[in-house]
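Example record

One chain of 562 residues, shown exactly as stored in the release files.
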Amino acid sequence: MTPNAASSSAPSRRSFLASTAAATAAVAVGTPLLAACGGGGQEGRKEGTTSGKEAAKILPAYVASSVVTPDIPAKNGSAAGFTRAIPAAELKTSVPKALGSGGKLTVMSPFWGTPPKDDNPYYTAMNKAVGVDVAWQNQDGVTYDQKLGAVLASSDIPDVVVVPGWNLMGRIPSAVNAKFADLGPYLSGDKVKEYPNLAAVPTEAWQRGIFGGQLRGIPMPASYVTDIAPLYRKDLFARKGYTVPGSPEEFLAWAKEATDAKSKLWACDDMKWTAFNIFGVLSGSDKALWWNLEGDKLVNRIETEQYLEALEWTRKLYAAGVVHPDAVQGKAGGDAGNRFTAGEVLVYNQNISDWWGKTAEQRTQNADFEMEAFDYFGPDGGDPTLWAVQPANIFTFVSKKASEQQVKDFLALCNFCAAPYGTKEFMLTAYGVEGTDYTLAKGLPVKTQQGVNEVNGAYDYTGNPAPYIAYPDLPEVTKGMVEWQQRMGAFTKKSSFFGLTVTEPARWSNLADDFEQLEDDVVRGRKKIGDVQQAVSDWKGRGGDGLRDWYRKLLDDNGSAD
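Predicted structure tokens for this chain:
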């Protein structure tokens, strides 16, 4: 699980929006994605994936949006950046007329917090603008996997269902194939052009929406540049005269100098995920990304020298006493960010969205607070080798029992919600009704309490534009985040199963589950590198080699998505 997996906030592309009211950015990356994709077997669980020529017949044509020009264009896999709020008079229109028929759809979605009443002004305004009467079945996001499993096992499912990638476990992948409609007849090739905002979704994100050999899922696009960044207290670095380290050795030497336990100051928190990126370890929350073809051999990350080197370097940090004692005890997640803002640690790794979240939060308390992400370096201090993460990890499906008109209404809803930043449709989807859900302060939209309660989740999952970052209240943070992604994107490679949604055979799908705990034990000195090597040997014997052969055949038969 990535270090930000403990977040209890709702995952939302709207978390990449700014308000002058400080809030914590919402992030969620959960357990590894093992979703169902085509490749033989009976309807239900279909092991494998769909790529190459077969995928080309299924995927929508890509037509980039020209409605709004970003302040910072996307490059090297980065998001696009918008550094200013667009005045109402300058907002563009991306959906000239409501595409919905006025019909009804029930949508089941995860929700964090107390769901609003069905007839609230935000839902009413959205339904009118889209032309679809949406009835939300919001479910507790914390226990959503349980509800999802129960609903999909029944014969009566909602018209539309949101499925986060981290919930694609157990029998849920089988249900995806069995219960949800093929959208290819409506979206494949040039057919998607009837829905221009969906046509602007990157092809690599659509590739992730192929399940059971068919285009079933509307994806939530994301940048493929690693989302874990080493964040540092730029204000405290400047005050103490520190420069950002440029190699693993420099980092360790600096950390020893910067740590002053008597003053309750430590150089860093747990840095395992940063180490993986420094040493070029195949990474990501999707286990399929842990495999890569090296020469003529398919290799898993746990078999590589880079993996051991990353763990050994992290162990040295712990052994040197430069890691905060709470991290030594295993208290990570959101606590690491609190230790960072309290000035108890100078560096921690977290989802890059924390750059805005923590800055917005602290500006109301500490005007001098300043943070940034430093660039990854390689093991020798040179250029790093970084690995792309999956370009989508939340999907929305429509039932096979839905009528043709309901499918079209579903796509009308998704097209509206995928409107780009700087449009009227975006403002309504993101902020709700002006004067009720938000007001304008110095040109920036600020949610009212009603807006905070009601414009939260739901429509975030039914369509999203190409990846973007828009924090107009902190334009320097937007610029910094996008430019960091662009610089890191220049060193980012795509592993053999990038962009593919893979279902591992059930008999092998939990083989690597114990490695995370083993990693944590090793870096904290409770176990040794030799224990990892023995675990790898055991993994091979328990099915790792068989799983390798299975993945290799998948690659030979289908090719990669890239």
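Notes: Residues 1-46 have pLDDT under 50 and may be disordered.
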